[in-house]
Amino acid sequence: MKFICYKKSCYLLFLIAFSTTILAQKSAINSAVTSDLHKAVKLYNNKAYAAAQQLFVGVSREAEQHRTAKADADYYDAMCAIKLIQDDANEKVLNFVENYPYSNKKEKAFLNVGNYYFANRKAAHALRWYQKVNEKLLSQPERDELNYKMGYAMLVSNYLKEAKARFQTLLGNPIYGTDARYYFGFIAYKQENFGEAEDNLSQLANDATYQAKANYYILDISFKAGRFDKSVKIGEKLLEESKDEKEISQVSKIVGESYFNLKKYDQAIPYLKAYKGTKGKWTNTDYYYLGYAYYQQKEYELAIGNFNKIINGNNKVAQNAYYHLGECYLELKKKPEALNAFKNASEMDFDLKITESASLSYAKLSYEQGNPYESVPDVLKSFLTKYPNSPNAIEINNLLITSYLYQQDYQGALDYINSSKSLANEKLANEVSLYRGIQLFNESKLKKSKPYFTKATLAENSIISSKGAFWLAETEYLLGNYEAALTSFLKVTNKDIEEAKKLDYNIAYTYFKQKKYTNAAKYFKNFLNIGFDDNDLNDDASNRLGDSYYASKNYSEAISSYDKVIQEGGVGSDYAQYQTAMSNGFMGDNDKKIENLKNLITTYAGSQLEDDALFQLATTYTTLNNVSKAQKTYNSLLLKHSNSNYVPNVLLRQGLLYYINNDSKKALEKYKEVVTKHPNSKEARQAVTNVKNVYIDIGEVDEYAAWVKNVKFVNVTDAELDNATYQSAENKFLENNSTKAIVGFTKYLQTFPTGLNALKANFYLAESYNNTAQFKKAVFHYANVISQEKSEFSEESLNKLAKIYLEEENWKKGIVILEKLEKLANYPQNIIFAQSNLMKGYYNKKEYSKAISYAEKVLGTSKLDASIAEDAKVILARSAFKTNDFLNAEEFFNEVSKNATGELKAESLYYNAFFLNDHKDYEASNKAVQSLIANYSSYKYWGVKSYIIMAKNHYALKDAYQATYILENIVKNFTQYKDVIEEAKNELSTIKNKEAKTNKSVTTQN
Q1: Is the per-residue pLDDT at 910 higher than 70?
Q2: Domain 393-495 sits in CATH 1.25.40.10
C-alpha cells in the first residue's frame, strides 16, 4: 500500500515537473514574441518599415497561439506593406479585416486601405473604404485627415454637396485649411454661389499653390458680376504667367470682353483676337464684340469683316451688329451696302433706339441713293408715321457746339457735328478739325492728327485752310514724308498767319531733307533775309545754307555762310568751323584747312566734332607728307577719343604710314591691333590683307599663316563664297525688298555665322525685320550687333533697339540700351534722344533723382527742340513734387504752364491750385480750380482732383458744408478714379471727425 502510494506520489511529482517545464518553455516563447513585437513597433514608429516588416512577419508566425500578438503583427505587417507600396498591400489589409473583425485596429485598417487607394488616385475605391470608418473612434488629427480625403474623393466623384460639407469643417485647420478653402471655394463656384466662392478664393490670391487657379475663378466671377476693372487686372496677370493655350484663350476672351464693357476698345481688340473659340468656332456674339471694338477705333474695314459674318441673326446682338455694319459702310462711302444693313436693323425691335436710328438712316440713304425695294416716298412717310416727334433743335445744336469749343473738347464737337449732318455745321467742322489736329499734334499723336488737318485745308476761310496746310506739312515732315510735307507747305496761301513767319525755313528744310540743295539754299536765303528775331534759328539756317552750298560743291559760298555763324559765336559755330575747314580742303587750300581745324580744337574744347577735326587734321598732314605731325595727331585722337568710330581707321592709317616708312614691325603692330581690338570693323579685313603684304615683303609668309589661323573671321577658302552670298542679300536690301533681303541675310548667317560680313548681315537683317514690323526678330539681331566690339553699326543699332523697347513701354530693357547709347553715341541727336528718354524712363520707374539728373542734362543742351525742352521741364516738375521738393516743383510747374495746352495745361493748373492752397491763399486757389473746370473740363481726372483742393480751401475758409458736399459728390459720382476717391474719403473722414467734436449730428468716420 505504501509502495503504491509512493508510486502515485512519484508520478504526481513527475507531472508537476513536466508541467512546469512546459509552462517555462511557453513563457520563454511568449517573452520572445513580446520582445520582437516591441522591437518591430519601435522600428515602425521610426519609419524603418522594411526592417519592421521582417520582424512583424516573424512574430505572426511564432504567435500562432497568441492571438492578440498575432493580430498586432498582422496589422503592422499590412501597414508596412502600405507604407512600402507593396503589390500585396491591399490584400494584406483585407485579410486583416477579415481575420480580425473585432480588432480595435479595424478602423485604422479601413482608414489605411482608403489612404492606399487615395494615394493611388482611385478616389471611388478610397471613398468606399473611408465610409466604413467609425469616425468617433479616431483621434482629432485622424478625423481631420479623413474629412479632407473624403471631401476630395467626393469632389472627384461629383458628390459636391457632401464634399463641401467635409471641406467646411476644415476651413480653419492649420494643416488642411488652405487646401480645404480652395476646394470649398471651387465647389461654391461650380454651384454658382459666386459670393461664397469669391470670399474663399480671394483669400488664396497670394498663395503660391493656388494663386493661379484661384485667380482664374475670381476673374470669371468678377466678370460675371460686372466688375470689369478687376477682371482686367486679374486676367492680365494670369496671361503673363500662364503657358496653357486653352487657359490663355479663355482668359483672353474674358479680358477682352471686360475692356469692351469698360469701353476701352483699343485695349480689348488684341485680347478678343487671341480667343480661339470653342473647338475652333466663334459665335455671333464673339464676332460682334470684335467688330464693334474695331468700329469704335474707326477701323471700319476690319469691323465689316467681323459684322458681316453674322448671318441670319435675329436677336439684339444681330440688330446691333447690322446697325453698326451700316455705319461702317457709310464711313467707307459704300452707301448701297449701308442701305441694306440699316434696312435689316430697322426691321428688328429688340432695341427700339437702334430701330429708330436705323430707320432714319435707311430713310436718308433711300433719299440719297434710291431704293430698290420700295418707293422712296413710302420709306420717308413710313418713318414719319412711326416717329412723328423726331427732334431737330437748331438752337440747342448751336449752343452745344459752342460749349464744346469753349471747353476745348474739339473731338466732342466734331463727333456732334458729324452726327448732326447740317450744312452750317459742316463748314464749322473744318475749323474745329484744325484745333483738334493741333491738340493731337501737341500730344505727339501725329498720325491721328493728319485727317483733322486734311479736313481743315478744305475750309473756305483762307486763314483756316492755310493753317491746316501748314500743320499738315509739319506732321508729314516729322513722319518723314518730305514730298507730302513740301506739297502742303506750298499750299499755305495766307502769309499773314503766325505760322507763315517760319514758312521759308520749313520749306528749305524739306528740300534739304530731299537733297534738293539748290531749292533748299533759295529758301534758307529767303528766311535769313526776313531777319527773324531768333538768333539760334538764324544760326541754324546759316549752317544749313552753308551745307546746301557745300553739298552742291559751291565751297566759297558755303564758307561765307559758315563764317556768319562763326563770327556770331552762336549755336553750331563749332560745326561751322569744321565745315569751313572741309570746304578749304576741297578748294585745295590745305593750309587754311589746317588752320581752321586747329582753331576748332583749341576754341571748342569738348566739342562733339573734336575727333572729326583731329582725324581730318591728321589726314591733311598725311596728304602734305608731314608724317610725324600726322602720327602725333592720330595719337592725340586715340588718347582723347578711345571710343570714337575713327579708331579702327586711325590704326589702319598709322600702320600704313609706318609701312611706307619701312617700319614693318610697327606697321604690323598697328594692323594687328585693328584685328584684335576691332574685329567687326570694315577696317579689320583690310588690316588682315595689309598684314599679309607686310609678311610677304619681309619674307615671313609662314608667320602670316600661323597668325591668320587665329583670326576667327578669316577663312581664305570661303572668302569668295562669303562675299558673293552676302552681296546677293545686300542687293535686295538696297532695292528696298525687305522680304527677300530677310531670306538672303538669314541664309548667309546660317552658312557663315562668323563670316567676313556677319556683322553687317546681322545689322541689315535687323533693319529688314524692323522695316517689316517684325520687331521681336529685329531685337535679336540688333542685340547681336551691340554685343560685339564697337562698330559703325553700334550706334544705329542701339538707337533702333531703344525705339522698339520704348514702343513696347519696356522701360527695364529700354533704360539699359539708352544708357549704352548715351555713352557710345557720336551724333548729338542720338545723345539727346537717349537722355530725353532716360529721364522719362527713370520717372516711370519712380527713380526720381535720376529722372531729375537727366532732365537737367537735357535742358543744358544747346540747339534743343522746344518740345523736348518742355518734356524735360515737365519731368523736373513732376519729380520734384514726387520727392516733396515743393519749392522747385512750384517753380517748374509755373514754367510748364506758360506753354502748356490740353491735358498738360489742366495738370499745371491743378498744381497751381495745390501750391496756392499750400501757401494758404485759399481764394486764389479756388480761382485756379474754377479756371481748370471752366476751360479744361474734358480732362476729368485733373478736374476731379482739383475738386478735393477746392474742398480743402472751403474748409480752411470755415465753410464745412461746401467742403463736405464737394467731397461726398466726388465719392458718389467719380468711382472710375480710385486714387482720387480714396483721397476724398480720407479728407471727408478728417473733416467729419473734426466737426463731430462740436456737432453732435455729425457721425464720426474711420
Answers
A1: yes
A2: yes
